[in-house]
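Title: Comparing notes on inverse folding

I've been comparing how different people in this forum approach sequence design from structure. To keep things fair, I'm posting one structure and asking everyone to reply with a full sequence. Here's the target:
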């Protein structure tokens, strides 16, 4: 509705009785010069009805709000169904797999919401409590509509959703070689993924539909879940022993130690005046 149409409709709804054009103009603020045109548009849309009296005067009644909302909902749903069938038919195959950068927390979380809301078959998440607070309602709705949902949650889980696993190995203190830095991974339908990180009030991330990156994201979350289950089965101390003592893992331990030292030396992400500096993350280390 236009502004005048909305004012006229609300006035009719609030009156509780039929009104003529003069009364609608007086109560709504719609100019008398346009009130009958405005009411005519409401009638044409089915949002109001004309009542003609014996003296040929015309009063107006609104379509009840509940009925109007149901009609709008049906029309909206019909439009969406038409678009779902017609738009894919005109989309050209992409010349390259979509990928774009996300440069702040708001954009990162909004894109994560898009991925979760679009999931239809399966959903993989690796997530921290801070981000789960915002994304939990959408994750829950995905699980409720039958999406096979696997969530690796860093820390205790207050309200489990889908197949939810608490990240306990290594412990959070051990895992946080980078103080204050949290990784977020969301992958839906083996078709799209978002990978990002948060450090204080800065954030970085990428979204892509590249199959290779999507596969890596799914395998990353899946393997980390397997690690948690194995650690619970064999014991955390046994798992720490494998990591600390097995000579086949020596080069991985050394690489992790070097990276941790670099991060500690870098300190908190620098923030020059008037700009936001990106935090150090694995892609920065050569």
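Reply #1:
Here's my take.
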């Amino acid at each position: 509705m236009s502004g005048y149409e909305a004012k006229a409709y609300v006035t009719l709804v609030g009156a509780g009785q039929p009104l003529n054009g003069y009364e609608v103009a007086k109560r709504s603020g719609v100019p008398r010069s346009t009130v009958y045109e405005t009411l005519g548009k409401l009638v044409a849309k089915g949002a109001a009805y004309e009542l003609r009296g014996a003296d040929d005067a015309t009063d107006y009644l609104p379509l009840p709000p509940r009925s109007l909302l149901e009609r709008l909902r049906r029309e909206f749903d019909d439009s969406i169904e038409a678009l779902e069938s017609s738009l894919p038919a005109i989309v050209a195959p992409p010349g390259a797999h979509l990928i774009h950068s996300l440069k702040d927390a708001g954009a990162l979380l909004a894109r994560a919401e898009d991925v979760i809301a679009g999931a239809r078959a399966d959903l993989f998440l690796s997530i921290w409590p801070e981000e789960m607070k915002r994304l939990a309602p959408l994750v829950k709705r995905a699980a409720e509509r039958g999406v096979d949902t696997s969530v690796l949650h860093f820390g205790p889980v207050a309200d489990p959703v889908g197949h939810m696993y608490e990240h306990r190995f290594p412990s959070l203190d051990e895992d946080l070689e980078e103080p204050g830095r949290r990784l977020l991974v969301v992958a839906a339908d083996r078709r799209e993924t978002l990978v990002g990180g948060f450090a204080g009030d800065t954030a970085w991330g990428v979204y892509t539909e590249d199959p290779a990156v999507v596969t890596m994201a799914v395998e990353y979350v899946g393997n980390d879940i397997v690690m948690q289950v194995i650690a619970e089965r064999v014991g955390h101390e046994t798992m720490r022993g494998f990591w600390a003592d097995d000579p086949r893992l020596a080069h991985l331990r050394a690489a992790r130690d070097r990276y941790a030292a670099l991060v500690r030396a870098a300190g908190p992400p620098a923030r020059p005046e008037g700009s936001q500096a990106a935090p150090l993350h694995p892609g920065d280390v050569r």
